[in-house]
Design brief:
By secondary structure, this protein is of the alpha+beta class. It has four domains: 2-100, Leucine-rich repeat, LRR (right-handed beta-alpha superhelix) (Alpha-Beta Horseshoe); 115-306, Jelly Rolls (Sandwich); 358-446, 2-Layer Sandwich (Phosphorylase Kinase, domain 1); 451-512 and 525-634, Transferase(Phosphotransferase), domain 1 (Orthogonal Bundle), CATH 1.10.510. The protein has 13 helices and 35 strands. It has a six-stranded mixed β-sheet with strand order 10-11-9-23-17-20. It has a six-stranded antiparallel β-sheet with strand order 12-13-16-21-18-19. A hairpin with a 4-residue loop joins strand 34 (643-648) and strand 35 (653-658). Helix 8 (469-480) packs antiparallel against helix 10 and helix 10 (542-558) runs antiparallel to helix 12 (601-614). It is found in: Membrane. It comes from Spirodela intermedia.
């Protein structure tokens, strides 16, 4: 269609949906469109309309309007409408939101010089860079600014014929490409999706766009007939036309990266993904079309001001003169140093491991921890000291440093990297990377703001946390749902800022590469948490972890440490005391007095009974961890086994004789 918008459309007073996109319409919007009082959705994109957005738009119940450059979207009309209309007011008034002004000007100093976004996914660390999370599920008419303030996206459009609007795509199959965490999710849109780099230093940048088709499937199926076709523009210039991810990647579930250069003259970079009106929109199901993007990276092709050293030109000149004379010697020295260094650090264990994680330089880690400043020390783990660090972008990290006196050596270091890098679980501390340099062996984890569960429950005064009952129960469920790793204890349970429990210190878990299970190679664990069959006979199964979990459960409910609990010197261990109270029918006396009466007696009884059931001296009578999770989540009543306590001076712990059947049917 071409020419002006037909005025006759304004007479269709019952019209609810109007789509005139992808035409050659010109002129202004007719005034009688104000009669469309039942209009819900109107698309006018990819036309050549001019003039101003009329006043009636802010009064109409219209939900989604899309206008393109050529229409002056006046800011005072649209300020409360900012998520619905792309605005291009030329005002320089800083009191007006930047998203309503042309080119999204920076209100402060343009100091950003890079950008990494995991579109539609969680935060990811790839190639030493942190890709920010992008999980906002809204998209039909949304302007979103990231928490870092470095980028934003504008999403406009409503999927045709779909009752559900899916603006985030999740992969349902296994991806085999490198850096798969960038491609397991994506952001998509039926019409127009723009990403903005905000407050960027002026200069030339390299823009990398990561794509992978994770919605369509391959093979001789109906779903394989789907086609996604869209355009990509950077800074208003089309760089990809009729782009088809499947064709470019030669299949579905495969990555394809497109590199471009872009010039930022002001402070904003605009990347625009636009449906070209082609392809399919109902295969493999309705509302599957429009642009899809997996990740975006933007890096400078210049030295940013933040990284420049004022003395750099002088120093560079001196080095250039010296290099002419000493360059041959430097080359020889460099080769020798490289060979010796590799020989020193790459023993057989490290050679055999293909690290699926990021490698950090020692220089970068020293800068983050202020050269391992004692003030940044936050704990002592199985490796040695643990330090808090801050990366240049402000991200907090925890650095675990292998001590030369530690019992945990290179083998455990390799095991920990191999196990954690292969796992993704919400209740596991996330491994960002490692550093193997010189005599330094370091692991870099996500920083856990509330330290360990041990400190929260029975740490020094001033460091303990007031954990209410529901928080304790949530922590218990989180631990139960995590991976089994042969050394579960409260010091290995860390708490994030929201008091979610995450398991750390996987060095004692032996990874069986053949079956992805755990096998026993030697006695490893902590006194007070080790299952008796493992401590006495070295017999290890997953039921040993169940025992440790039972001890931790009792500690969570009681607020006391199992290994340091003394009750009038009658009992050495918390487990002894729990069994004695159970025999007296007074198990609830074990509940932490700090809770007062603010707890659910039924839930407390369930958790205490479950703790005793998990610490049964007979492994076969302990429930499987999956059963434990189900019982906790479903509030299933648990009947603890009847026990008789006899003191044994030789081991200082209770010798338990099971008198009842004790739920012999548990798996």
């Amino acid at each position: 269609m071409q020419g002006p918008l037909p005025r006759s459309l304004g007479n269709l007073t019952n019209l609810r949906r109007l789509d005139l996109s992808f035409n050659n319409l010109t002129g202004e919007m007719p005034e009688n469109f104000a009669n469309l009082e039942f209009l819900e959705t109107m698309y006018l994109t990819s036309n050549k309309l001019t003039g101003s957005i009329p006043d009636w738009i802010k009064k109409t119940p219209t939900k989604y309007v899309r206008c393109l450059p050529g229409i002056d979207c006046v800011f005072y009309i649209l300020k409360h409408f900012m998520n619905y209309v792309a605005s291009f007011s030329s005002t320089t008034n800083n009191s007006i939101a930047s998203c309503l002004r042309k080119d999204h000007p920076c209100d402060g100093t343009a100091k950003n010089y890079n950008l990494f976004i995991n579109c539609g996914g969680e935060r990811a660390f790839v190639g030493g860079n942190e890709y920010e999370r992008d999980l906002s599920f809204e998209g039909k008419s949304k302007y979103y600014i990231s928490s870092s303030g470095k980028w934003a996206y504008s999403s406009t459009g409503n999927f045709i014929g779909g009752s559900e609007h899916r603006f985030l795509a999740k992969n349902e199959s296994i991806l085999t490409m490198a850096n798969a965490e960038l491609y397991t999710s994506a952001r998509l849109n039926p019409l127009s999706l723009k990403y903005y780099g905000l407050c960027l230093e002026p200069g030339n940048y390299t823009v990398k766009l990561h794509f992978a088709e994770i919605v369509f499937i391959s093979g001789p199926t109906f779903g394989s007939l789907g086609r996604r076709v869209f355009d990509v523009s950077i800074q208003g210039k089309k760089v990809l036309g009729d782009f088809n991810i499947v064709e470019a990647a030669n299949g579905t579930g495969k990555e394809v990266i497109r590199n471009f250069t872009a010039l930022v003259e002001g402070s904003t970079l605009e990347i625009h993904f636009m449906w070209s009106g082609k392809g399919t929109n109902s295969i493999p199901y309705r509302s599957v079309y429009g642009p899809l993007i997996s990740a975006i990276s933007v890096t400078p092709n210049f030295t940013p001001h933040a990284l420049k050293d004022k003395k750099f030109p002088v120093v560079a000149g001196i080095l250039l003169v010296l290099a002419q004379d000493v360059l041959p010697f430097l080359v020889i020295f460099g080769v020798i140093w490289y060979c010796l260094r590799r020989k020193a650090i790459k023993n057989d264990e490290l050679k055999g491991l293909k690290l699926k994680t990021n490698c950090f330089s020692l220089k970068r880690i020293k800068a983050a921890t202020r050269d391992f400043d004692p003030e940044n020390k936050i704990g002592e783990g199985g490796f040695g000291p643990v330090y808090k660090g801050v990366l240049p972008d402000g991200s907090m990290i925890a650095v675990k440093q292998l001590s030369s006196k530690s019992k945990q050596g290179n083998r455990e270091f390799v095991n920990e990297i191999g196990l954690i890098s292969s796992l993704q679980h919400p209740n596991l501390v996330r491994l960002y990377g490692c550093c193997i340099e010189g005599d330094q062996l370091l692991l870099i984890y996500e920083y856990m703001e509330n330290n360990s569960l041990a400190r929260a429950l029975y740490g020094p005064d001033g460091l303990k946390l007031e954990l209410d009952w529901q928080t304790r129960r949530k922590i218990c469920i989180g631990i139960a749902g995590a991976w089994l790793h042969r050394d579960i204890k409260t010091t290995n349970v860390l708490l994030d800022k929201n008091l979610n429990a995450k398991i750390s210190d996987f060095g004692l878990a032996k990874l069986n590469e053949g079956e992805n299970t755990h096998i026993s190679t030697r006695i490893a664990g902590t006194i007070g948490y080790i299952a008796p069959e493992y401590a006495l006979r070295g017999y290890l199964t997953d039921k040993a972890d169940v025992y440790s979990f039972g001890v931790v459960t009792l500690e969570i409910v009681s607020g006391k440490s199992n290994s340091s609990c003394r009750v009038e010197d009658d009992f050495m261990y918390l487990l002894d005391w729990a069994n004695a109270l159970q025999e007296k029918g007074a198990l609830l006396d074990l509940v932490d007095p700090a809770l007062g009466g603010n707890f659910c007696m039924e839930e407390a009884q369930q958790m205490l009974n479950l703790g005793l059931l998990c610490t049964n001296s007979t492994p076969a009578l302990r429930p499987a961890m999956s059963t434990v999770v189900t019982m906790l989540e479903d509030h299933t009543p648990v009947q603890a086994p009847a026990m008789k306590i006899t003191r044994t001076e030789s081991c200082g712990a209770a010798e338990i004789q099971v008198l009842g059947d004790a739920l012999s049917g548990w798996p």
